[in-house]
Amino acid sequence: MKSMVIGRGQIGSALKEIFSKAHECFIRDVMIEPDDPGEVDVLHIAYPYNENFIDHTRHYIEYYRPELTIIHSSVAVGTSNKCGDNVVHSPERGRFPNLAKEMLYFPKFVGGGDNDDRNLAKTYMEMCGWEVVQVDDSRWTEAVKLISNIHLGLEVAWRQEVGRMFESLGLEGQAVYNFWEDSYNVGHAKLGHKHLIRPIVRPDPIGGHCILPCMEIMDSQVKSPAFQFIKDSNEKRKQEIKRTHSSPREAVGF
Q: Beta partners for 3?
């Protein structure tokens, strides 16, 4: 099927690589490329969310006149429903820089549209090796993507705070890391208690294009004290790094 990916960033480039395995797939940024195909069967939206996202998406739909539009971007809840007919939302998962490989390890959720839209998206993606899960409401896929990234931000902020607690007590903060990973998690894994296994994350400052932008999007719709905790802890961590003159790797690509 003739396809167009809008957004030549990390997500868009990875999608182009994946979809080209089974479909005729083009990619562009804001400017129209010399080999622009005109009308396409499937349009992929993979540019960052902003206040003009809906208008821009509707413009691209009008220009390419696709049978199906798939929004892969992290967007405010309710966005996909406002972009027009035959539009579904399908959030991405995976880490940089191996997105095109890692994304295929995660089931591809497809939310919204009608049965025909979801079935077409399912067939299209399965041809590229993706396992597809259909959801009636795109608001669910939009919300769960935002919450998933915010959850990781909360884990990082908590790990930052734990380090401060141990420092105040005059204890080595790495000890709690070792306790979780080498003792607590090992025991629960043997017992089959997957729900009690603690995530192991670094306390480095949060960076990248995932956690903080998703939190800002959700904060514009729903208020939570968790958001301020993440922001405050992350700013404290940046200042702590400056004081100690260390250079940790930013927690990018989560």
A: 25, 42
Residues whose CB falls within 8 Å of the CB of residue 242, separated by 6 or more in sequence, listed in order: none
Region label for 36, one of left (φ > 0), alpha (ψ between -120 and 50) or beta (otherwise): beta
Q: The pTM is what?
A: 0.90
DSSP state of 31: S
Q: Cα–Cα distances in Å, from 249 out to 108, 177, 202, 209?
A: 29, 18, 9, 15
Average pLDDT over residues 150-171: 93
CA dist 215 → 86, 112, 145, 231, 243 (Å): 28, 22, 11, 9, 27
Peptide bond into 97 cis (omega under 30): yes
% of the chain beyond a pLDDT of 70 = 96
What does the alpha-carbon distance between residue 156 and residue 238 come to, in Å, rounded to a whole number?
13
Each residue's pLDDT tens digit, 104-151: 999 999 999 999 999 999 999 999 999 999 999 999 999 999 999 999
User: pLDDT value at position 248?
Assistant: 54
**Beta partners for 110?**
134
CA geometry: angle at 97 spanning 93 and 101, to 5°? 60
Pairing of strands 68-71, 87-89: parallel
Residue given tokens 């296994």 in the structure block: 197
Q: What is the mean pLDDT of residues 25-45?
A: 91
Q: Which domains does the chain have, with CATH numbers?
A: 2-136 (3.40.50.720), 143-244 (1.10.1040)
pLDDT classification of 250: cutoffs 50, 70, 90? very low
Cα-trace Rg, the chain: 21
Instruction: At 137, list the tokens.
Output: 């409401």
Adjacent-strand bridge partners of 69: 43, 87
